[in-house]
Design brief:
This protein is α+β, with helices and mostly antiparallel strands. The protein has one domain (about 5-155): Nucleoside diphosphate kinase-like domain (Alpha-Beta Plaits, 2-Layer Sandwich). The protein contains eight helices and four strands; from the N terminus they run βααβααβααβαα. It has a four-stranded antiparallel sheet with strand order 2-3-1-4, with helices on both faces.
Amino acid sequence: MNTLQKTLVFLKPDTVQRGLVGNILTRLENKGLKLVAMKMLALKDEVLHEHYAHVAGRDFFPPMKRFLKSTPVIVMIWEGIDAISVVRKLVGSTNAREADIGTIRGDLAMSGQFNMIHASDSEESATQEITRFFLPEEIFKYEKSEYLHIYSEGERKTF
């Protein structure tokens, strides 16, 4: 069954430094996803330790943390039918050298760590990550008239 979902995406310092924010936003918009929240922020230690708790004890975490704190990031929420899996496919493999050409990482990155973008990997993580970065009043609800040309009538009935 098709499910309308929200997913968290953040554009890492390499995206900001290389001037590729617009390129990635365009890819997500062109796919037909709806942007419902966006802000630029500096990541703090507490947030990074919470967000990356699953790797916080690993050797690569301290340099990764320095990298993620080196420049503000762009944090966003995108919405669409099956948005979590759709965005993950658009993003590509974590190791950018192994990511398929045509994906964001496959086209724009060359590193396993400097890999441009983070995207939620499940409904559970999307919910946690959205709550971590956004207050409810920062998430917008609006009609996207373009949906008449993106989703079939049957698919639109799900939301």
